[in-house]
TrEMBL record:
PANTHER family noted in UniProt: KYNURENINASE
Source organism phylogeny: Bacteria, Bacillati, Actinomycetota, Actinomycetes, Geodermatophilales
Encoding gene per record: kynU
Name of this protein: Kynureninase
GO biological process: anthranilate metabolic process; L-kynurenine catabolic process; L-tryptophan catabolic process to kynurenine; NAD+ biosynthetic process; quinolinate biosynthetic process
UniProt record similarity statement: Belongs to the kynureninase family.
Complexes and interactors: Homodimer.
Protein's organism: Geodermatophilus obscurus (strain ATCC 25078 / DSM 43160 / JCM 3152 / CCUG 61914 / KCC A-0152 / KCTC 9177 / NBRC 13315 / NRRL B-3577 / G-20)
Length: 423
């Protein structure tokens, strides 16, 4: 691979997705602008689409300010309308299988309890020991409340889960497996189809967390036979901080499942205000309370951009950006003690790459102070997430060049070793 800056510029010139960059606030048109931050944290929080403020203003100034409560006629179906947009354009699901609602944690809880109830007589929940904390916490909480056992499967923090290890942990006691499609720390990519099939053979259900996958890699829920999934919308889907999550339930399972939070938006005849809860048919039975209208509008804007770009094209560019990170790290950073902490095979990675160094926390702070924005993950990882929808190859080159300079100069050594709170 040609590792010159000119080669990175040539890749940008040939990039079929290059036009999308101008549709994000702060992305910057001039790659030589020294004040432009090199943003490599799109896997934590995506950039704001330039269309989002106008979309929000329309709802605020026209629908809320003028229409008031009459605007509920257009708002009330937003959760399923945007869900269908995600289903078709991002997730490879069918209409009526995706709902925008609540947070990822709440959606995970709802589907986990519903799935466990659908497997009576089975008393084990399986999760991965290195999975995202909220997933493991929810599994532990549900197991404790129900008198179930948690079976944590070990996984390599850099290479991800070994499917054979998971298969060995599955038996007739397992009700539900909770697993991320893309590992939050390393970016290791799971085989959704193979894992789902293995769990199904054992009689269990798989609940996928797509938070680091949706909008960056193809998940093809229908083609892969997935049963259940949740995911956030503020990373690669660019829905904004705290944007509502989505949940997916395969159509054939919907009438079998009853989620545990019985709210009026999940009621069959919502405005009858009846005395007893009767779950609505279809995906709407997984709704709970009044949806966040403004936040859902922002999700719709981001989801449309991803659908327009095409997840397959985004995945191709994401792999290429990751390959550039890896090649530059090997050439420039490895001599300073930096090691790749993600799968080397790009087919086994999502759209972020993680690098390990004993001074990862200090290095992260030094980079941020110099206009490069990665993030830190324990124990000693710098995580780089060049979101393919708006990140240039030259952005990666410049960021890695800055990384090299920090290491070579020892500029990071003056930073404190005690970590502040990282969100």
């Amino acid at each position: 691979m040609d590792l010159t800056r000119a080669a990175a510029e040539a890749l940008d010139a040939a990039d079929p997705l290059a036009g999308f960059r101008a549709r994000f606030a702060g992305a910057g048109d001039d790659a030589s602008d020294p004040t432009r931050p090199l943003y490599l944290d799109g896997n934590s929080l995506g950039r704001m689409p330039v269309e989002t403020p106008a979309a929000l203003a329309r709802v605020v100034e026209e629908e809320w300010a003028r229409g008031l409560v009459r605007s509920w006629s257009s708002w009330i179906g937003a959760a399923t309308r945007v869900g269908d947009l995600l289903a078709e354009g991002v997730l490879g699901a069918r209409p009526g299988e995706v709902l925008v609602a609540d947070s990822t944690t709440v959606d995970l809880y709802k589907l986990l309890v519903a799935a466990a109830d659908a497997r009576p007589g089975r008393d084990v929940l399986v999760c991965v020991a290195d999975d995202f904390p909220t997933d493991r916490y929810v599994v532990a909480g549900v197991a404790q409340a129900r008198g179930m056992t948690v079976r944590e499967v070990p996984a390599d923090i850099d290479q991800g889960l070994d499917p054979a290890v998971l298969a060995a942990a599955l038996d007739e006691r397992v009700a539900v497996v909770v697993l991320s499609a893309v590992a939050y720390r390393s970016g290791a990519l799971a085989d959704v189809a193979a894992v789902t099939a293995t769990a199904r053979e054992a009689g269990g259900l798989v609940l996928w967390d797509l938070s680091h996958a949706a909008g960056a890699v193809p998940v093809d829920l229908t083609a892969n036979g997935a049963d259940l999934a949740v995911g956030c919308t503020y990373k690669y889907l660019n829905g904004g901080p705290g944007a509502p999550a989505f949940l997916y339930v395969r159509r054939e399972l919907q009438e079998q499942l009853r989620q545990p939070i019985w709210g009026w938006f999940g009621q069959r005849d919502q405005f009858a205000m009846g005395p007893a809860y009767d779950p609505a048919p279809g995906i709407e039975r997984f709704a709970v309370g009044t949806p966040p209208v403004l936040a859902t509008v922002a999700v719709e804007v981001g989801a449309r951009l991803v659908a327009e770009a095409g997840v397959e094209r985004l995945a191709v560019k994401g792999r290429a950006l990751g390959e550039l990170v890896v090649a530059l790290a090997d050439a420039w950073l490895a001599p300073h003690g930096v090691a790749l902490a993600s799968p080397r095979d790009p087919a086994r990675r999502g759209s972020h790459v993680t690098l390990a160094h004993p001074d990862a926390w200090q290095l992260t702070q030094a980079l941020v102070d110099r206009g490069v924005v990665p993030d830190f993950r324990t124990p000693d990882r710098v995580r780089l997430g060049p979101a393919p929808l708006y990140t240039r190859f030259v952005d990666v080159w410049d960021a890695m060049d800055c990384f090299r300079e920090v290491l070579a100069s020892g500029a990071h050594e003056g930073y404190p070793t005690v970590r502040a709170r990282v969100t």
